[in-house]
Amino acid sequence: MTRIEWLRPVLTQPEYDFGKLMATLLSPSSPLQSEEFLKGREKQLSHIKRALLQSGRHALIHGLRGVGKSSLAQTSAYALPESEDAILIGCDENSTFATIIREVFDQMSGRSPVFEKSITERGLSFSRFGLGAEGKNSLHEGRASDPSSVNEAVRLVRFISENLTNRIVVVVDEFDLITNRGEQVIFTNFLKQISDQHVSATFIICGIGESVETLMDAHASADRYFHTEGLQQLPWEARFEIVESAAESLGIEIDRNTVIRIARISDGFPHYIHLISEKLFWRVFEAKNGGVVT
Ligand SMILES: Nc1ncnc2c1ncn2[C@@H]1O[C@H](COP(=O)(O)OP(=O)(O)OP(=O)(O)O)[C@@H](O)[C@H]1O
Ligand SMILES: [Mg+2]
Fold this sequence. Notes:
Elements: H1 9-12, H2 15-25, H3 42-51, E1 58-63, H4 69-79, E2 87-90, H5 97-111, H6 114-122, E3 131-132, E4 135-136, H7 149-162, E5 168-173, H8 181-196, E6 201-207, H9 210-217, H10 222-225, E7 226-231, H11 236-250, H12 256-266, H13 270-287
Helix pairs in contact: 2-11, 3-4, 5-7, 7-8, 8-9, 11-12, 11-13, 12-13
The structure holds adenosine-5'-triphosphate (ATP) and magnesium ion (MG).
Adenosine-5'-triphosphate binds next to helix 4 and helix 13.
């Protein structure tokens, strides 16, 4: 083997190490969290980062299924300066405003039990969220939230933020899966109150279709406290880059035609670019033909 070949993982590494390395480069099944791997979204990322430097502003990311919303949301959340590690919340059909707020609390108290202790010791009560002087109770899933719970939620998030030096950043993903439109509206009211009352918390919401309209229609002033980013399929250059940079790190030689074919088949949906590249690179690994795509 020549010196250069020693540097090519596809030729030198055992299956396990090769697979582990590939998993750091290609992730068809989970959203990205780091700028290094997020291709073709530089402009959108920079817009979100700039917009969220203003306190009282939140972000809304929308676009077709699989276009890369969660990846942009999580990468932005982790890139914000002077903020706590992001809280990631995924919604489902049973989510309500109350379950989201309770989840924010649970994730924060999982990091530091001081919040729960402090509620108990100070005799505070956030009863709508199952939190009180006697400790935590479970929330009744599916029960509709009471609109006046907005104030209590604002108090709860303020209570958490006052015990932290950095601002809270929460990604609320799959907002469209909340089936009850009323819950979506209450959540929008809550975001406005967070802004109006100067609570140090920033929310990044991902959604598709009608849920976006619900958010924006809930208040005439919604565009004042939301930065909105609509995502389209990835541009060609970014599609090429995903395949080529992963191939390069694995020491795989890939011709331009194959790269273009993968980019075309994917139609700009990054999941498919990752998935096809992963399958192809395993074939190259198994073929033991000098690490070349044939
Ligand atoms: N800009 C990007 N560059 C490289 N890979 C990306 C990019 N955006 C997303 N991906 C990859 O594509 C896959 C799908 O992205 P993501 O989960 O963010 O999409 P989504 O719009 O949230 O999908 P869904 O609508 O199903 O929730 C992820 O596994 C991620 O690794
Ligand atoms: Mg997603």
